[in-house]
Amino acid sequence: MSLFRVVHPAPDEAARGHARLSVDNAADLEFARTVHGALSKGGATYGAREIAQLLRERPDIRALNAHVRQKATDAKDLRVAFLIGHADQIAETLPKARELNERGHCGIVYLGDVDAATSELNALGYRVAPFAVSDIETVLPRALEENQIDVLLVDDESWFLRHGRTGLRVHNHRSPLPVIMGRDI
Q1: Domains observed in the chain
Q2: Strand order, beta sheet including 127-130
Q3: In this predicted model, which residue has the larger pLDDT, 10 or 116?
């Protein structure tokens, strides 16, 4: 005797909608939390029909993640790393990280001087690999390989050139690694 039984419910036409219901990034999480908050008041339960009705009535909720592009099932995520030389650069890079994550389905990794913002970056769904900038020549190549980085973004070109002395090898698992600097980001 089985503990579970498999059922195949018939599609409910009234519950159909065109909303993105997966949680892959910060916009999706905000959407899910808002839907849940609106429908679970007083411990109420809800399903697809109630979600569809809510979204018909509240286009502002549907808009929370409407800009997020659904990734094709056979598409590969790119891993993009932001190399941070100074912690104050993090805030400047967040809009670009969010755009790459939500519209391009890129995995985001922050490398370098990011210790102070680790919990904030993790809460946004970004990986963090902190290291002292004085160790860039030994630690960066290993961090790129361990995180399987496809593209390295360097916000402060002068900092990178100052600290990334001529011996710095910027390669990834496929070598060589594309590096985008400064205003090109």
Answers
A1: 15-62 (no CATH), 79-184 (3.40.50.720)
A2: 127-130, 107-112, 79-84, 151-154, 179-181
A3: 116
